[in-house]
């Protein structure tokens, strides 16, 4: 997969808190990205603020008790947001009739999106870029993507 962004491609730039759905109205050499949709995740406090009890304990028949690992609420919320992004990616690509898709996300989220998008959509993914560009302004994102 090459990193050039074709004209009219749908570009998704996301992290665990926000996803930008952009359309390239420029060229592959000089992209110009227009915002089509912004998806934000609900507030995701720390695990200790989400859990209500201390970790459970198991009494073994012989020997000491052992602890039971608690749920990682933040990871579950991140996975839920990745599901929402994958669903929105499908609806936006159909609405915009985007023939090609470029996904830019940090490696853990990119791996989750790979698992969550369907095969028909996966065939339209032209490039996957493992970077977190969400905190950059749009002009800086265009410059970074043009130089990849």
Structure report:
The chain has 148 residues and is an alpha/beta fold. It has one domain: Nucleotidyltransferase, domain 5, CATH 3.30.420. The chain is built from 5 helices and 7 strands. The strands form 2 sheets. A 5-stranded mixed sheet has the order 3-2-1-6-7, sandwiched between helices. A two-stranded antiparallel sheet has the order 4-5. The longest helix is centred in the middle third of the chain and has 24 residues. It is elongated, with a radius of gyration of 19 Å. The protein starts with 9 loop residues before the first strand and ends with a helix. The mean pLDDT is 86.
The sequence of SSEs as H and E is EEEHEEHEHHEH
Radius of gyration from the alpha-carbon trace, in angstroms:
19 Å
End-to-end Cα distance, whole Å, is 12 Å
- Helical proportion, percent range: 25-40%
Counting helices, strands and paired strands, the structural category is alpha/beta
